[in-house]
Amino acid sequence: MTSRPAPRSSSAPSGQRPPVPRARRIWQTIDGAAGGLPLDLGLYAASAAFAGITAATSTLPPHRAWGAVAGIGYLVAALLAAGQLLARRRRPDSPLAGTTARSAITALTWTTTALLPLAWQSAQRSAGRTDRAQEEVVVVEHSGARLIHDGTPYLGHDAIAALPPGEQLLGYTPYQPGMALFGLPRAALDTWWTDARVWFALATALALALAVRTLRDNTGRHAAAGNRTRTDAALLRAVQAATVLPVCALTLATGGDDLPVLALCLLALALAATGRPGRAGLAVGLAGALKLFAWPIALVLLFWAVARRAGGRYAAGAFGLPAAALLPALLVDRDALVENVLRFPLGQGLVTSPAASPFPGHLIATGLPAGRTVATVLLVAAGLAIAVRLLRRPPRTAATSALICAYGLLAAIALMPATRFGYLLYPLALLVWAPALRLAAPDGSSSADSPARAADRA
Question: How far, in Å, are 33, 49, 74, 245, 246 from residue 45 at the CA level?
Fold first, then answer.
């Protein structure tokens, strides 16, 4: 306990509650209308339209194949949600319109819009179709094979230069060394279930399930029944944002490497919300051992942990695990590590990244004189603004940390000279998870001395 004033939060254990921010009130009104069913219907209907447009117009064969299957899944989900609305109108307390039924439809939708297209494309690829996976799947699987044979997932500069020009891009592995683990099954056996996407999906499902269980268990320990009901509804919406949202389902079915990273970051935030900084560090550390995108989230959570006087326990996992993953590759071939993890992402490799989604940073970099410099300056300025915010007002709750991460990543994606539309899955999921994190630890500190945190100290 400290002598500093208690942080401002969304609710208080006693006395008058502080005012709820306007943006949160608007979201609560939209999300809570008619038990959340209108928003469910809108989500599934809009997603069906997106999948149909993707199937008809995408220039990427894996995306077109995804849209053809996922469009049907989203349409079925929309019809079921419409049926739930009718059932609720006839009987407001109908179990067919409750959170449990909505959760079942969400699970069905994820199966039909992500897992089924994934399995179908994996089977076709195993049968000889070469246009049923994005490049990152091939890159991860090749890195797994190199990890077994060479002790490092990375090719050096000279080895990449010796490849035919059309294959040099696939010679780069712009991930952290841990990502190569998802390529090990394919290195051992060439069949549909050793496709890296299958293992991305398994890791994603496991991490999300642990995150949901963590938040529900914590809510059950300290909350009234009404708050648990609200938390379950918020968790359902959060899970939808990480699974059935088209940017997530499409990414998992066709590429997939971002989904386990996102899920582990969400697990870290859930553990932070329940007062477990050591375990939160381990979760975000695992994400950071896979991809650099997790590192900004790890840094924001470090400020949260320091504010709770748990910086050491958190940092041991959050930064120790990525460092431990880098060490073997560094010892085996330092130049190959630098070529893949630093030079290529910074645009200094033999080939440049094909990422070119029309966000402001890319448009500025390609459309203005010295545009890349201008975009870089704007990106650095946004980073400095977030750093000042963290130094002046460190986040004291997991929900606030999630919002800072979401807005920071959104700014970075918008201003980076080379980026992908699919990266939006990170800020979107983080924004929607914030209400669930807030409800699971409503006073922002109630879990600080809980039995779970005591166990985390051990």
Answer: 17, 6, 7, 11, 11
Q: Tell me: the pLDDT tens digits for 430-456?
A: 999 999 999 887 544 434 434 434 334
For residue 144, give Cα distances in angstroms to 181, 284, 449, 453. 6, 22, 42, 37
CA distances from 231 to 31, 339, 406, 439, 449 (A): 12, 45, 20, 6, 21
- What is the number of helices (H) and of strands (E) in the chain? 23, 0
Question: Measured between alpha carbons, how far apart are the two ends of the chain, in Å?
Answer: 19
Which of 61, 40, 62, 60 is closest to 109 using CA atoms?
40
Q: Which of 297, 268, 278, 229 is nearest to 452 (CA)?
A: 278
SS (H, E, C) 423-452: HHHHHHHHHHHHHHHHHHCCCCCCCCCCHH
Q: What is the pTM of this model?
A: 0.90
For 76, other C-beta atoms within 10 Å of its C-beta total 17
Mean pLDDT of the chain: 89
CB atoms within 10 A of CB 89: 12
